[in-house]
Design goal:
binds NADP nicotinamide-adenine-dinucleotide phosphate; 15 strands; alpha/beta
Length: 336
């Protein structure tokens, strides 16, 4: 078989803050063959995640920073093209940390096989993958929402946020989204079925807008942004409120982090809790969660919006777009 060309997006320089296209290069080489215990996967879709800003920075993190000249770390979904691994066959659909490249070789560590043959592969990076799992575990296991409670979510039209809002509705809650721009507000109300949506970009008084959208106060806050948006939500937390710290997309820099209002007063007076989590610590929940998410997608209760960029060459600039709010729904790159 002739050598296959493997294009890779490699980190060229460490960004000051949000990675830009010029921080990466696309380099072509020859695709590696799998050895015993390994398989080769042809990536079909590459994930674009806000966390990649952290992965290429030297800010304190849960993973070492991507090294200069290393392939960009990312989740990807693809098809097994060669296997010397007893657990994987040619043709298997898989999701894993395969990186921004055409082909990857894996030993199967932290790889998930895609079960739902009837559902699009790209969804297993979004609503049926990292995003849906994060929404499911964060909202249900940590937020513990009760029917009739008000659940507020920031980045409400994004990959994680749109799942949080819809799962909250499935569980009988009032769902309120915070997002940027009238197009996303319309989408939140029309497609993701939020009970109310607030546009933080045009609202002069976020406190009043939230009060109007949440007349019974806020019981659960799924925080994707941190920053000023979250400060406003915390002011309207109900007694016994739960805050799920998922992301910090609104912070202009990760390190040193900007300071803001102190939260202790809210937590004490409202007897509230605030808990951060990383979805990768919850693998024991994945099978149940994916089965539920697949069922909701098939039943039409969980609608998935994807923001698909076409061509590997789109990848280097794709993270910056997330931080401009260009994406509606889960952003992925279709490799070919
Ligand atoms: N803890 C975990 O294990 C875990 C796992 C996955 C994801 N996450 C986090 O979950 C959050 C959502 O991830 P996602 O993949 O679904 O991304 P996403 O919401 O699809 O995209 C990011 C969104 O962030 C918002 N944003 C960007 N800059 C902002 C700013 N300056 N102020 C306010 N909002 C801003 C934009 O939405 P608007 O246009 O609405 O502002 C943008 O669309 C991220 O913070 C991510 O890091 C955490």
């Amino acid at each position: 078989m002739p050598d296959q060309i493997n294009r890779q997006v490699r980190l060229k320089s460490r960004p000051q803050n949000v990675p830009q296209a010029e921080n990466s290069d696309i380099v072509s080489g020859v695709c590696a063959d799998p050895r015993d215990g390994q398989f080769q996967v042809r990536n079909e879709f590459l994930s674009v995640d806000p966390a990649m800003r952290l992965w290429v920075s030297e800010a304190p993190s849960y993973l070492p920073p991507v090294a200069i000249n290393e392939v960009m770390r990312s989740f990807a979904a693809g098809i097994v093209t060669a296997s010397r691994h007893p657990g994987y066959e040619v043709g298997d659909r898989v999701v894993g940390m395969f990186g921004w490249q055409d082909f990857a070789v894996s030993d199967g560590s932290a790889v998930q096989k895609v079960r739902g043959a009837d559902l699009p592969l790209s969804l297993y990076l979004g609503a049926l993958g990292l995003n849906g799992l994060t929404a499911y575990v964060g909202l249900l296991d940590i937020g513990d929402p009760k029917p009739g409670e008000t659940v507020v979510v920031s980045s409400a039209a994004g990959g994680v946020g749109s799942c949080v809002g819809q799962i909250a509705k499935i569980k009988g809650c009032r769902s309120v989204g915070i997002t940027g721009g009238h197009r996303k507000v319309d989408l939140c109300l029309g497609e993701f079925k939020y009970d109310a949506a607030v546009d933080y970009k045009i609202t002069a008084d976020l406190d009043s807008a939230l009060k109007e959208a949440c007349p019974r106060g806020i019981d659960v806050y799924f925080d994707n942004t941190a920053g000023a948006i979250s400060d406003a939500v915390l002011r309207q937390l109900n007694v016994g409120g739960r805050v799920i710290c998922c992301g910090r997309a609104s912070l202009p820099q990760l390190y040193p982090p900007p300071t803001g209002p102190r939260v202790e007063g809210h937590l004490i007076v409202k007897r509230a809790s605030m808990r951060g989590f990383l979805i990768t610590d919850h693998r024991q929940r994945f099978d149940t969660a994916v089965a539920d998410l697949e069922g909701w997608v098939r039943g039409g209760n969980l609608r998935c919006r994807e923001d698909i960029l076409v061509g590997l060459e789109q990848a280097p600039g794709a993270i910056a777009g997330l931080y401009r709010g260009d994406n509606v729904g889960k952003r992925v790159v279709r490799v070919r």
